[in-house]
Amino acid sequence: MGSRPLKRILLVEDDPDIQMVTSMTLGSFGGYTVQACSSALQAIECAAAFAPDLILLDMMMPGGKDGMYTLKALREIPQTASTPVILLTAKVQPSDVVRYKDLDSLALIRKPFEPTALVDTIQGIWTRYSAQAH
Amino acid sequence: MRVALQELTEQYSAALREYCTEGGEASLLRGYQLGRRAVAAGLGVLEMSTLHQEALVEALLEMLARDGSAHIATRASEFFAECLAPFELTRCSIQEAHAAMCDDNRGLKQRLSAALSDFVGAQDELLEEKRLSNLKTDFISVISHEVRTPLTSIHGALNLLLIGLGGEFNPKGQRLMDVAYRNSRRLMRFVNDVLELQRMELGTMTLDMRPCELQSLLEQSVEASQAYASQLGIRLVLKQVPAGVRVRVDADRTMQVMANLLSNAIKFSPTGETVSVEASRHGSVVRVAVIDHGPGVPQAFRSRIFQKFSQAERSSEREGSGLGLSITKAIVEQLGGRVGFESEVGCTTFYFDFLEWGPQPASLNKEEDTWAADR
């Protein structure tokens, strides 16, 4: 079976500016359907209804409900139990990256990223993932 | 010991009796010598005086009939005093030794306390150094997050505007957009460079070392910089590479080294010039050289060219963080190679050397010798 096309992306990002730029990049430039959420709770709320193909998840979010928390919660929702996840982070200290390595994710994208390159990167990761998965 | 004591007692009695009856220096001298033997045998003054008493009683019992007791008592005291002299001498020398020891102790104490305060000072320095180092790491962490986050939106927004998401700009607007975008990219590169260098300094960079074909590595590197070169009107060529040469390196990191050296060479070349890449073999050392025909490295700048944040001149045209070459050097050294340059007006060569990777482990030692001699 050939690779399934990537259509629906759930973006979880608490910084409103980054959220807007990223969702415009993915939506207007990449042509994906994007659901943007600003918090873990919001993501958990709309995960089931949106049923994303891919989740872009910011690791640093306030209030103790960070990326790790969100990822764990999303895994308990049937619609996102095995949805591939790409982590976003501005923290790229070795100690942080090591922690992220153990998480159930496809890749780690570091901020700042070039929006136009982001689409290529995500598409590349998706292509490799879906070729492996099928 | 007991035999010695017995003998000592007998000799003492004899000498004491002799002195009591006849007097004379000779028997007194024997008393003194007996005293020294007693000291040497480890006898104390109390034991000595017991020995004296016993000998005296014996002598008195034997001699009382013939002589006056007062005379015998005086003589016996004199003799005893003489034989106690060595004890007194010993006591004095012990006191002297003790005093000397006290002096030594004081000296030692002083030296110890000096050493201790040195140690405490060194420890303070170390703590201060550690504090500064932590401060630096914390500071870089702050840069990492607090600068990268806003930069993500700024750079992203500019990028989207530039690709036309906000509609067309008039020529002036377009120029301003270019300036903004170029400089946000410059800031982004700087932040990434600082973090990269920190990773290398902390030794947390992971390397994927494997034997690589030099030819293909260099082809890919040149290919990757081709766009930047043609943008500045520079011809970029890969010259001779010795056939079949392999080096054991991390390919991505080596490409990064090449990208840095090529970008420098291109940046400093006059438009229309050529930047060339060539590789050569010197014994078991493989040298990769990037050659440009720019103005050369200024004399005053040569000694600090690989240092952090160093640039020969600040110029917006030649944008850069001043970290490129120090990153290059750090990478090459982590890969087990070395980096260097030769420069004159019109011809500058930056090079890095690696050991050729050979399949036969027997030649490894020889290679190391060549390497050491070549250094």
- The helix count of chain A comes to 5
Structural class of chain B: alpha+beta
| Shape, principal axes of CA atoms of chain B | rod-shaped
- Order of strands, main sheet of chain B, comes to 2-4-5-7-6
Largest interface (CB < 8 Å): A-B, 23 and 23 residues
- The residue fraction in helices of chain B comes out at 55-70%
Distance between the termini of chain B: 73 Å
SSE arrangement of chain A, N to C: EHEHEHEHEH
Query: What is the average of the pLDDT values of chain B?
Result: 82
The average pLDDT score of chain A comes to 87
Tell me the β content of chain A: 15-25%
Helix content of chain A: 40-55%
Please report the total strand number of chain A as a whole number.
5
Radius of gyration of chain A: 14 Å
Counting DSSP E segments of at least 2 residues, the number of strands of chain B comes to 7
For the largest beta-sheet of chain B, the strand count, sense and barrel status come to: 5 strands, mixed
Order of helices and strands of chain B: HHHHHEHEEHEEHEEH
Shape of chain A: globular
Residue fraction in strands of chain B: 5-15%
Describe this structure in words.
The complex is a heterodimer of chains A (134) and B (375). In chain A, helix 2 packs parallel to helix 3 (67-74). The relative contact order of chain A is 0.19. Chain A is built from 5 helices and 5 strands. In chain A, strands 2-1-3-4-5 form a 5-stranded parallel beta sheet, sandwiched between helices. Chain A is an alpha/beta fold and 134 residues long. Chain B is α+β, with helices and mostly antiparallel strands. Helices cover 63% and strands 13% of the residues of chain B. Chain B has helices at 2-22, 25-40, 45-63, 69-162, 171-201, 214-231, 251-267, 324-334, 364-374; strands spanning 209-213, 235-238, 246-250, 274-282, 285-292, 338-344, 347-355. In chain B, strands 2-4-5-7-6 form a 5-stranded mixed beta sheet. In chain B, helix 1 crosses helix 4 (69-162) and helix 7 runs antiparallel to helix 8 (324-334). The radius of gyration of chain B is 46 Å and the shape is rod-shaped. The relative contact order of chain B is 0.06. The A-B interface holds A 15, 17-18, 20-22, 24-25, 28-29, 60, 90-94, 110-116 and B 140-141, 144-145, 148-153, 155-157, 159-160, 163, 165, 188, 191, 195, 199, 202, 204.
